[in-house]
Amino acid sequence: MRKKSNLMILLFILIYSFLLNSCSNSNVNKTQQNKVVEQNINQDKELTKELKKEEIVADGQVYLQEDTVTLAMIIKEGIEKEKVQPIAQKYAEILRNKYKDKKINVQAARNGENLASVYIE
User: Fold this and answer.
1) What is the rounded distance in angstroms from the CA atom of residue 105 to the CA atom of residue 22?
2) Which is it for strands 103-110 and 68-75: parallel, antiparallel or unpaired?
3) Per-residue buried b or exposed e for 21-52, using 16+ beta carbons within 10 Å of the residue's own CB
4) 25 has a pLDDT exceeding 80
5) Helix (H, G, I), strand (E, B) or coil at 4
6) What is the pTM of this model?
């Protein structure tokens, strides 16, 4: 009986250590994946700064990844949806002129709702 309980304890310790090792490796892989993603994204800091000055924009970013330039903006609370599309179109035109060889993707959202979307291929 004693051998059986010792075996169970040993088995439990082995399983526990295996699980700990698996979780540790998973975190390392996620960290490495995040670094790879960050390396493939370049922010247009100048245009991001300009975007954030817009009265209707709470936050936003312009970034380049491979053959696409993406502008993502979060719209402030209380701003009417009709005011968002002209700003999205304005920045789509600016990006099209600045990045002639890239696809342009402009997105405006608030609380998970997409308020405006412009895509230029």
Assistant:
1) 38
2) parallel
3) eeeeeeeeeeeeeeeeeeeeeeebeebbeebe
4) no
5) helix
6) 0.66
Taking the C-alpha atoms of residue 119 and residue 70, their distance in angstroms, rounded to an integer, is 9
Kindly give the pairing relationship between strand 41-43 and strand 68-75. unpaired
Degrees to nearest 5, angle at CA 75 with 70 and 77: 165
Q: pLDDT tens for residues 80-119?
A: 989 999 999 999 999 999 999 999 999 999 888 899 889 9
In single-letter form, the type of residue at position 70 comes to T
What tokens were used for 110?
Answer: 């608030």
Q: CA-based angle 113:67:101, to the nearest 5?
A: 110
